[in-house]
Structures are given as structure tokens and as C-alpha cells.
Amino acid sequence: MKTLIVIPARGGSKRIPRKNVRIMCGKPLIVYSIENAKALKEHMDVDVAVSTDDEELGSIVKKRGVEVINRPAELAADNVTLDPVIYHALLYMEEKNHKRYDTVITMQATSPTLKKETVESAIKFFESSGYDTIISAMNKPHLSWGMKDGKIVKNYEKRLNSQELPPNYTETGGFLITKRECVSKEGRIGNNVNIFEISEDEAVDIDTYSDWVLSENILRRKTIVFHTVGKMELGMGHVYRCLTLAYKLTGHDITFILDKESNIGIERVQASNFPIVVVEDQKELESFLKEKRPDILVNDILDTTVEYMIMVNKYVKRIVNFEDVGKGAKYADAVINALYEKGEKLHNEYYGSKYFCIRDEFLEEEPKDFSEEVENVLIIFGGADPSNLTARMYDICKILHKEHPDINFHFLIGFAYKYKELIKDDSLNNIFIHRDVKRVSSYMNKMDLAVTSQGRTVYELASMGVPAVVLAQNEREAEHVFAGIQNGFINLGIGKNIDEQTIISTINWLIQTPKVRQEMRKLQLTKDFSKGHDRVIHLILNDLDDDE
Q: 514 with 483: CB under 8 angstroms?
């Protein structure tokens, strides 16, 4: 089947002057349509031509090896429809190439987000369907109103949610595919018509500056995969960090990958409504990456091996790892570790609290005023608390209550904490249990003192100016040096190795010495976490150019 693709492109444009030759994400706007049309030549008998009245535009087209048809002045006026333009181009190409085409396709120069695979699928549908004409359209149901006899009237029978409304197809500038005999000066649409539905992202037709901005954002969109882990022995910090970043990367194509052992992490990611893939092993992971070919892979799985990193580098353009001190780290484009303070970055490593990605809620809350008296103490050990430090502190708070009967002890229990049924409110000892809290900051900013583990929570407490006693969950967590006296924390080491009396005496001392607590608070509030997201997102997206 002989096919002619005509791309009509005038030099003049009222709303966006010279839009067809303007650079969008590294190349002139018209080039996107040209590239889509030329790509069809690989599998189809296709000729491509651009009808234009503009010398500069013609020069851009010729450089891409495409036929330029000089449009007569009478067909370049503002009030001329596309029908006579396409008909003129058809007659020109048939005479020049000494052939009669079977199919004529109009492709607008103003559809840069349209994908070549979509056009190819539409042509195959047209060829097998028996329709005279296929028009690209977007289905966007809405409650709409019109005018009849001078009055505003509704275009619907019953008010429904958009997903329940009947289809409402809007033509896009992507393509109009029609049989040769349907093309004339007066029209290009036959009697037997159907639409080919395309996605909202591909349906953008550049008519206004808003359309231009939207298209640029779509074209800059990256496919990003977060490979993370969330299980009892490792806690939920990795999953929460990835979710925090995913929420910030609005507009990009995000997918999460977790291994089947990450049961609590899978549950939390599923609740976020991000796409998630659960893999059995590294072989399944490789198969996914080979098919997906993401622009960016974010590994938040602790240490990586050389074998793993060599594998993922075969399928991914850019790789960013968190908390990776394994032998595979050198194969990443960037390694980010906010939990260590290592001075200046070395090679691909970025260390220190300035790279901590604090949740938005902590940027919105204000620290409470300092209180000489301790009225509320917070006990928080993350989403899972694998060392069950919560149970130790539950018993310790009963002892502390005897000496401080006016202090309230607030336990924030994570959704993945295994022993939550054993930890209950105890009003006699002023112990209050808060389970799976959605907004932790609203509790933290009411506290005078805290007891916590040595992960991301210490940064959140610092942002709220809450002096804290730190008990690490394990040896690796104990290596995180932020939670030290230099930043407003009393670090007792690995929790399971610290005797009960040391914990009690330390808390008693802080309760009784407001000057020490006030100094700790001052040290905490010198830290500014507001730019951490920006720094990390810059590192994630950094090396990918717009025109890749």
C-alpha cells in the first residue's frame, strides 16, 4: 500500500511567533513530526513531504532529507483550511513521483509528544479495519455546557463522576489517515469514519504557550525505577526515603521494585498507589530492566556487589545509590549518604546531612517554644523497630513515672512493629500509645524530650528542635555519626548493649538540666534541611540532557 505523509507547516503563527522553527528540548518543533514520519519508512512504503511557505522552515526540512513543497501564497493565508493544502501536496507528489497513492496521512507539525509507535499502530488499524478515515482523538469526558436558542444548556443528562460519563472524543493534531479517493479541495474525511484513541500525553497540540510548556515537561519526563527494600530486620527507612523522592519527582514515570522478602515495604508502597513490581530474584529483576530500559535507576538497598552493578549498567542510563559502601558503589553515577559526615565529596560520593530528604510535613511545622519543664517525652523507633527497643522503653517509662509523675510518655508505634498488640495505653503511668501516625511532625513539635533510634528520625527531631537520647538498632546504624552531641543528641550506642540504669540516669539527667536541653536544641536548629530534596533530585536527574 503506497502511503503519502504530508506535514503542513506555515512560517507564520499569531499566538506563538515562528513556533514551528523554535527549539523545543534541543530541536526545532517540526523535527518531531518529521522523525515520526521517517521512522515509518523502515516497515512501510511511505513518502514524506512538508508543505510550507517559509524558507527557513524549508531549510530545516531539507537538512532532514524530506521533500519540501513550496506552498502557494493563496494557500498560506490565515483563513485557509488544511483541506486544499493537503490536496495540493498530494497532486504535487503524485506528479513528481509518477504514482498514485492509496493512503494519505496528515501529520501536524505541532504534536511533538506523539510517539512513532502510536502512529504505526494507527496505520495498521486503518489498513485492517475497512474504514475510509481514521482520526487521532483523546477521550476526555467532562460535564459540559453549550448554548441553544440563546440560553446556556447542559450537554449531559445526569451529573456523574468523569469516569462514569460516556466517551467525549476531541480531535488532536496527531494524524488523520484517509483513503486517496477521500481527498479533495473541499475535504479529507470519508463517510465511514472511526477514531484512534491516544493518551492525553500524546494529544498535546501546540497552540498556546501553555501547550508549549506542557509539551516540554512531557518530553523531559524520565522513566525512573526505585529499587528498594523494606523488611523487619532492616526497617522502613529505605522505603520512606524513596517514597519521599517519588512524590517530589512529579511528572516523571515512576515504578518501584522490591524483592518478595520485603513484605512490609511492599504493603507500604502499594498503599501509596505507585506502580510496583515484586521480583523473585536478580534474574527477574534483570528481565524487568531489560524490557523497561529506564533512564534512571535509584538503588536504596544498602551495599551493592560488582556483579549487580555491572548487570544494571547494561540497561540503565544513570544509576544513583543510597547508603552504599559495597564494592559495587564505584560503578554508580552518584552515591548519596546523608547519614555519614565525610567532608568533601570524593569522586561519585555525596555525604552529609545537607543531602537528607526530610518529609514535607517537617518543612511546614514550626518547632515549639523551649520549655524549662519536661511535660512530654516521645519514644519512637521507626516503622519496624527490629530490635524491639520499644518494649524496653515501655518498661523503663513505668520506672521513670515514679520519679516524674507529671510527665507524659508518648509512644509512636510504626505499622510494621511486630509486637504492637503487647504495647497498650497505661494511664496509671501516663503512657499513651499512638499507632501508625500519618503526620509525625504534629506530635514531635509538642515534645520536650525524645528517645529514638539512629536512623532518619534523628533528622526529623533535629528539625523540630527536640533534644533526644539515641539507641542504635544495630552496628551499621551506630555508624551514622549525625546523632552525636555536636548536633544535639546524647548517643548511648547500640540499644541492646546498654543497661537499663544507664538509660534511666541519662533521661533523668536531661529532665533535670534544662540548660543542657536548651543547648542541644540550639545545636539542632542550626541545621537547615529545606534544600536536601533539591540537592538529591539534582543528583538523580543531573547527567541526562533534554535531547537524549
A: no
